[in-house]
């Protein structure tokens, strides 16, 4: 494998930092290549700005159009180009972060905002149908993605009956709306719960679970998201009439229930 490990935690001494180091050691030991984007260590700028795209400030700043022009014309900010080159090189993306307020840290959201631009991460059209190639098809098709997240909450509270909501629902904007949207196959996420109360025994269990998931990255069955262009959605991108029995909300966009996320 060629793995890009995308990491967003401000303290290398944290549980997240220890698990990242554990994971990278395992990849090296098994002969896999890796690159790391440690966003806090890099002092990554998460804010989209006209300067990213060499855009004339006198003109209205339409982000989608400006970013696509800069990408196709070779005028992107060098830090964005460097991250795109890493992702192009990789066949697997590991996205690791602590779950803060039901989502990613802002610095990580800003990585996707600035790196996943039109022309690079999306923007292809099927020449036969005219439909955009997204949700299972697109420029990043063929790559795999794994989300690893630590949470202070207990595992059961991030399950289907937990007060915090099911983890796959909380991660739906990232897993479905970003990774699957651009064509990546998304593996079931790895949740490390109770992060603020970790004991040596709990850490050993977490490290074992991480190692097991990394060793099976190439063979793990991805989350069963529906493809946009294989008949499950009509021309208005609504679920097709034959799927009237499908549930509502995020669950409607799986062909079958995803596996549970808690150990």
Automatic annotation (TrEMBL):
Pfam families, per database record: Flavodoxin_2
Residue spans crossing the bilayer: none
Cellular compartments per GO CC: cytosol
Keyword Metal-binding attached: no
Keywords associated with the record: Oxidoreductase
Domain Flavodoxin-like fold: 1-213
GO function terms (MF aspect): NAD(P)H dehydrogenase (quinone) activity
Stretches for region Disordered: 239-263
Classification via PANTHER family: NAD P H OXIDOREDUCTASE-RELATED, NAD(P)H DEHYDROGENASE [QUINONE] 1 ISOFORM 1
Family membership: Belongs to the NAD(P)H dehydrogenase (quinone) family.
Descriptive protein name: NADPH:quinone reductase
Lineage, uppermost ranks: Bacteria, Bacillati, Actinomycetota, Actinomycetes, Kitasatosporales
């Amino acid at each position: 494998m060629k793995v890009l490990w995308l990491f967003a935690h401000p303290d290398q001494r944290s549980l997240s930092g220890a698990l990242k180091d554990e994971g990278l050691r395992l990849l090296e030991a098994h002969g896999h290549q890796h690159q790391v984007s440690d966003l806090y260590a890099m002092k990554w700028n998460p804010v989209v700005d006209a300067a990213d795209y060499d855009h004339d400030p006198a003109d209205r700043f339409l982000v989608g159009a400006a970013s696509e022009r800069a990408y196709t014309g070779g005028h992107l900010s060098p830090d964005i180009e460097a991250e795109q080159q890493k992702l192009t090189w990789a066949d697997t993306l590991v996205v690791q972060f602590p779950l803060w307020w039901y989502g990613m840290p802002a610095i990580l959201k800003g990585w996707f905002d600035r790196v996943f631009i039109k022309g690079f991460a999306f923007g292809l059209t099927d020449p036969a149908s005219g439909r955009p190639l997204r949700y299972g098809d697109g420029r990043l098709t063929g790559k795999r993605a794994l989300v690893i997240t630590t949470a202070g909450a207990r595992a059961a509270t991030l399950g289907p009956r937990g007060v915090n909501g099911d983890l796959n629902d909380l991660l739906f904007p990232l897993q479905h709306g970003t990774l699957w949207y651009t064509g990546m196959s998304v593996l079931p996420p790895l949740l490390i719960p109770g992060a603020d109360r970790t004991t040596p025994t709990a850490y050993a269990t977490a490290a074992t679970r991480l190692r097991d998931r990394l060793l099976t990255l190439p063979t793990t069955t991805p989350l069963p998201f529906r493809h946009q262009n294989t008949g499950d959605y009509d021309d208005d991108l609504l679920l097709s009439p034959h799927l009237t029995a499908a549930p509502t909300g995020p669950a409607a966009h799986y062909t079958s229930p995803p596996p549970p996320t808690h150990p």
